[in-house]
Amino acid sequence: MSTDLQDSNNTAFFGHPIGLRTLFFTEMWERMSYYGMRGLLVLYMTIGVTGNPGMDWSNVQANAIYGIYAGMVYFLAVPGGWIADNILGYQRSVLIGALIITLGHFTLAIPLEQTFILGLVFVALGTGLLKPNISSIVGQLYSQNDTRRDSGFTIFYMSINIGSMLGFAVCGWLGEKVGWHIGFGAAGVGMLFGVTQFILFRHHLGEAGKYPNKIKEETRRNYIRGLGLVVFLVAAIVITGMAGFWTIDPVYFAERFRDFLVIISIIYFIYLLFFAGLSADEKKNVLMLLLLFIGAAAFWSGFDQSAGSLTIFTRDYVSLTFGSFTAPVSWTQFLNPLFVVMFAPFFAYLWVFLGRRNLDPNMPIKFGIGLILMALGFIVMIFAVKFALVSSPVGVQWLLLTYLLHTFGELTLSPVGLSAFSKYSPKKYLGQMMGIWFLASSLGGVLAGLLGGEATASGLESMSPIFTQLVYYCLGIAAVLIVLSFFIKGVKAKAISDE
Length: 499
Description:
By secondary structure, this protein is mainly alpha-helical. It contains 17 helices and four strands. The protein starts with a helix and ends in a 14-residue tail after the last helix.
């Protein structure tokens, strides 16, 4: 695949390189396992559902653990990309990551409390190794001037939504209706399908992502030694914790993890603004990206309530009975990927339509719109909580409207944020800045866990204040971005698709 001729002749998968098929199904099964397990996580850690009791941990503890897990998945994508670049190469990183994820889900399937955290550790480590690198291989299937590149990524990203819908449908049903560990095991079986087909059809990838960057062998050996030491230390910490030599309050850990992410982000942006030798225009762009970073963290802290406080609200206060059929609680999370599939083409067309008429909003305004839509979703939930205080259960239409608004916000904000960081980051810091974009998702995940715990600490009475706090936070940042947009001329979002 080293020449344009080879690329143009490789059209075996819907007009695209046959290797895209391998990556499509690997990603599909990985997302099936990730979202299928995530939909069960908080339910299992708390009181469970009728006829299927969980671990009976407090809502605060369960949400904190969920937040730590969600934050770690995105945080570990940064070292995962570095390992692929310098030690393993993208293909081996994806394969090893997929194997670790599979091990994690089957560990979660063991009906022992002691192995639960170990399973989450494996899944987070494996996802951090797989997630950032599989997209890199997609890009390497095409030459730089191949016009099919954007279309190929669009096809690839569809696998995310197909996989997540499959995970919520299968793992959600089995976990809630049959047994939690059966649901976790189903996620492992799905990931095993992904691993198997990747091994069988890996040869279709050719040289794409096969080798790491060229560096001195002595340097690579030092990297490997350092990585081995880190793996040893992590293993020692996990094993001694499982053996009962130490314990830690999950809320305390989540708060310190949040502080760590905030400090790392502040230090990096200060370095860029004052010590990186950037031009005045580059510093202006970095300031804009800093605002987008803050907005993204706020957005994901609300968006990720779907698997935390909104799941608990659904379980305790929403009627999911339709005639003689009662749907699993986790099936409500099926709505987001379904709405993405339904409305992503509309949003893609909308920006093109507005662009042709010179009406396409600039990046800060689009980001602000995404945050406003997130706030509107929580305003709907505030009314749902008020109705539930009077008479519960309430109808599922409240969740339908909330998830619809949140999906609209995601389709407005997520592609724009990725585009902004890829287009306006200082060129020599592009890779690091993409890691900072992942860091915003990581910080948002941790905040989602902490806020979800506060929201569900005292049932309905504690939900409205936290949801109101999220509304003010999102609207405040949106207002700042929209005002500043009038001072940022000519900054237009590049239309891309991302999940």
